[in-house]
Amino acid sequence: MMWQWIVSPSLFAVYMVMAKDTSVNSPEESLPFYCVFCNCKMTRNGIITDCSGKGLLIPPTNIDNRTSELYLSKNLISVVRYSQIPGLFNLNILDLSKNKISSIEIGAFRDLTSLTHLYLNGQRITRGLFILQNVFLPGVFTGLVSLKVLHVHNCLTRTEAFTSRIPSEALKELTRLEKLRIDGVVNVTFNEDFHLLKNLSTVVMSGYDGVCTIGYLSRDSFVGLEHLKNLTINKCSIEEIGKGTFWWTQKLEYLDMSWNSELEIYNFGKCLEELKNTSLKILKINAIHDPNRAGTEILRPNLKYLRDINLTEMYMDDNGIEFIDYGVFSMFPNTLKQLYLRRNKLNFGLYLDEAIFNNPNLESLDAGDQELVIRSELSLTHLFGGFNSRHRRSVRVTDLMSFDRVKRSDTNPRLNLKSLICTGSMSRIQLIDFTSTVNNLTFIDLSRNFIPKIQSNAFKGLYALRHLNLSENYIENVMDSAFNGLDSVEILDLRNNLLGFKLRLDVSGNLFSPLVKLRSLNVSRNRITTLGKRVFKFISNLETLDLSDNYIENLDIEMSPLLRLRVLDLHMNRLQSVPSSVRTYLSDLSQYHSVSVDLSSNKLLCNCNNIPFLKWLFRSKVKFENIENYYCSFNDNTVRVFNDTGSEILEQLEKDCKSYLGIIVGSSTGTGIMIAFLVSYLIYSNRWNLRYVYYMAKVKLDSNGGNVGTRDECFPYDVFISYGDGDRSFVVGEMLQNLEDVGGKRLNIRDRDFELEK
């Protein structure tokens, strides 16, 4: 068997060296020898051969007929001939994309009877023009009786798109074709030849990954696509849709006209009358207005035929919509389940109530990422040309606060709405009242608006809600009963608000008490300095708590109710340590399940007093996220990053603090002994004075109490006579007689009154 490649010289040399060393004892001995050069894989369905990006100038010949998939993209192939790919009856996928193919031999694919996918997109020829009808001549696709997917897009330049036309003579042989991806030529026409393609259900013409300069759609554009179900013609510079354009596509279920920014809703609205005769389910008209122009308004006449189309999904993103007339959402079909209004310029108000309560079958309303721009009435892009009094509206966006709420079609509506997203207006909004409704709302995102205060029972009626996002709303105050009725909420996002003062005052945990099923709470970036000690008392099911990016200096909170806590994010605060009660609780909790704590970007201290905290940091079972980026400050104001040396820092700190401990203990002991000795000496040397003071104090107390009898019992003598032996006769004679007999005093005379052993 002869093998022939034409490759660049350098790659050919590499191939020759490798071919000589082809192993006979390879684990996959059945693979052909050229797999040394290409990537091959044996599968149950055959050999997958990938020769992409090998610098090939022509396709290989004599490829093994067991090949089921052949990838030749990103090469330099310019011509495709039958002699290069004969006998590949089992081939299912052939990828010739991103080459320089300018010519395909008639009948080149005639042996590829099993081929289902053919990719010829992305051709870039260096000489001449790539004209669709000249490259894809009649008979080029002969033999492709099983082909289902054909890609021939991204081959034209904008100049070539003006001279090319859809090669219907070549394509009409692909009777099994289901999907066609092709460049959009000017005044595109799928003629009667496409009636033969009864399986063709999807046509894609897009300026995103190809060239599309259609400009104008007419009655003849889709005349042969009577079996079409999915049509994408986005970013194709379409400015106008003629009458009867969609007359032939009555089986159409999906239509994407997005990013035709000159089309505008007014022009598109004209064709809605024809689309009501189709089976359309999904309609995408994103960015059919230039979103960078002045704001767009949508009036009721623009969509008057919409209610007659059984749509289930509608996309109107990126249209710069600033005003929606009252009554527009009442014209939407009852079958609508998903409505998208992302990245417009809407102020959430009256129209939002109308969209929700007048479309009870709606399951998802996504009006996220609004970019509100305040404009005057005259700056709006009016859809009917000149602005006059006939078109002046009675309801304005700026008048929203003067209305109570839109009149509902049902006073107690049953809503199918499950997801509500209204984000990014950066303006004040009024929360929708769901009190009297029966609803299935599980997800609400109201982030990036302006809701400074949340009143009591603000979310009453949302009994099925599980995820509530109120982030970036400048919320300063939340009433204690604001979350009443939200006992099903599992995720609450309050990040980037102003709740620091409120959370500091909540010492009893009343704020979050209704959220008994809460699993995730985010209060990051809320200017929190201190938390109420029992602020998380009633949310025992909490698993993730995010307190990051605040000003917390002391985490003195009661953690014991948080029995299921797994993630505690404290990064970017001002913590120097963590209280022992919190450390103990988290360590105990880690015995039962994993616990993750993030303390990065805090001002941790490395000193002797903080050693217990550092031990916990390095030796507990708690997992510390990003610990290699932790840093701490020493007493000498030096700062060290933990990196891989965190444990070494702790060991050195323990060693240094241990030496100081001996000195402190010794000095304290010596000082204590000296003080005890000095006190003992002073007491002993002043024992009589102290005794005298004691007795005198006792006498004074007794006298103040009037207890005379007790005093006499304590002192039987009035006078104690101290005398020498020479004065004995005077004392016993004259003094004793005069003082006792005459004066009535009791004398204590040692020769008479002293008793032994006393």
UniProtKB/TrEMBL annotation:
Protein name: Toll-like receptor m
Keyword Transmembrane helix: yes
Domain of life: Eukaryota
Domain TIR intervals: 715-758
Subcellular location per the Swiss-Prot or TrEMBL entry: Membrane
Protein family membership: Belongs to the Toll-like receptor family.
Biological process annotations from GO: signal transduction
GO cellular component: plasma membrane
Membrane topology label: Single-pass membrane protein
Transmembrane segments: 660-684
InterPro entries: Leu-rich_rpt, Leu-rich_rpt_typical-subtyp, LRR_5, LRR_dom_sf, TIR_dom, Toll_tir_struct_dom_sf
Keywords noted in UniProt: Glycoprotein, Leucine-rich repeat, Membrane, Receptor, Repeat, Signal, Transmembrane, Transmembrane helix
Keyword Repeat: yes
Position of the signal peptide: 1-19
Molecular function per GO: signaling receptor activity
Stored PANTHER family: MSTPROX-RELATED (PTHR24365:SF530), TOLL-LIKE RECEPTOR (PTHR24365)
